[in-house]
Amino acid sequence: MTGSLLGVQLHPGRPPVLDAGPAGDAAGWVERHGEPLRDLVDDYGAVLVRGLGLRTVADVSGVAARLGSGCYVEREAFAARTLLSDGVYSATPWPARQPMCAHHELSYLLDIPATLLFACLRAPASGGATPLVDTARVVEDLPADLVAWVERHGWLLTRSYGDDIGASWEQAFGTTERSDVDRYCRANGIATEWLDGGGLRTRQRRYGVLVHPVTGEKVWFNQIAFLSEYAMDPEVREFLLEIHGPDGLPFSTRFGDGSPIPHDVVDLINDIHERHTVREPWQDGDLLVVDNLRVAHGREPYAGEREIVVAMTDGVAVPAFEEA
User: Fold this and answer.
1) Count H helices, E strands: the chain?
2) Which SUPFAM superfamilies match (predicted)?
3) Which residue, among 199, 168, 194, 172, has the nearest Cα to 182 in the 3D structure?
C-alpha cells in the first residue's frame, strides 16, 4: 500500500521519502522548510529528503546549522572518525564487506545527539544502505522478561582502549591528559582502571530502555548487541581473546547486574531489529534526518566508493542509572 502526506511518499519496507523538487540551494530549502521537516521527523522517526543536491561538506554544514539546535561534539567514540567541519564527521570506519548492526548513536553516554543528519556525497556502486529501525517496535517484539530485566538492571559496557582496534583513549576523550579523562569519567558515571603500558579500561552502567519524550513510548535504547563481543568478526575475536583474554577485549557488554549476555540473546536482538528494518538505497545528494532517541541505524555491506557524512545536533541529557 502506498500513500503520501505533505509530499512524503510512504512505501512498505522503506523509510518516508520527501522529494525536495528543484531545491537549488540546499541550505535555503531547509531554511524555508525546516519546521515542517522537523514535524515529519516527529511523526515518523526518520525522513529521507531527496533532491537537495548535497555535494560538499560545506553544504552539509550549512544544512545542519539551519536544521539543528547546535553542533554536538562527539566523545567516547568506539572507532576514530574525522571531524570534517563544525559538527560534521566522516562515517564510522567499518570494513565495507561487513554489515554494521542497528544501534542508537552514542547510547552509552549521558549526553547524546538527539538528531542525526546523514548526507550522501557519493553513493556506492551497490549496497551500502543505512537501515533504520523504530525501536519502540523492537520493545513490543522482544520477550517481555528480557525487556523487564534490562529495564530493571540496565546494561554494562566494558571498554579496553589500546592500539589493536578502535579508538585510543586520547582519540575517544579528546585529550592526552589522564587527569582530564579521570575528571570526565567521574562526572559521567564511568569507572576507570589505568593499565600497565598506558592502556585504559572503563566500565559504565546505563539504562537500556527509555521513554521517548515526544511519543511516550518505550524504546530499546542501547548498544547491547552492537558492542557485544559477538559482533566482532569471529577470527578477530578469537585473536584478541588469545592475546588479551576476556577482560581485555576492546568492547564487551553484559546485563547491568554483571551477568553475561548469551550469544543467542544477541542474535535474537539483531533478528528482531531486522524484522522491523526499513531501507532505501542511497542516491547522490540525499539527506536522511533521524530521531536518534527513537530510531536505530546500521550500515549494509557495499562495493565501490561510498561517501556518507554525518552531522550530530540537538544534544540532550539522558538519565544516569540509579540503583533500585
Assistant:
1) 8, 21
2) Clavaminate synthase-like (SSF51197)
3) 194
> Which stretches within 80-233 are classed as H helix?
135-141, 144-153, 169-173, 178-187
Sign of CA dihedral 159, 135, 83, 70: negative
Q: How far apart are CA 46 and CA 236, in angstroms?
A: 34
| 260-287: pLDDT as tens digits | 999 999 999 999 999 999 999 999 999 9
Indicate whether 241 pLDDT > 90: no
Indicate the pairing of strand 17-19 with strand 277-278: unpaired
Q: Pairing state of beta strands 46-50 and 17-19? A: parallel
pLDDT in tens, 56-86: 999 999 999 999 888 888 889 887 788 998 8
DSSP 119: E
Rounded-to-integer distance, Cα 153 and Cα 148, Å: 9
Cα 214 to chain center, whole Å?
A: 19
Domains and CATH numbers, the chain: 3-130+279-313 (3.60.130.10), 137-270 (3.60.130.10)
Q: Name the helix (H) or strand (E) containing 52.
A: none
Distance CA 182, CA 276 (A): 39
Q: Please measure the distance between the N-terminal and C-terminal CA atoms of the chain and give it in whole angstroms.
A: 46
**What is d(CA 187, CA 185) in angstroms, rounded to the nearest whole number?**
5
The H-or-E segment that residue 273 falls in is: helix 263-275
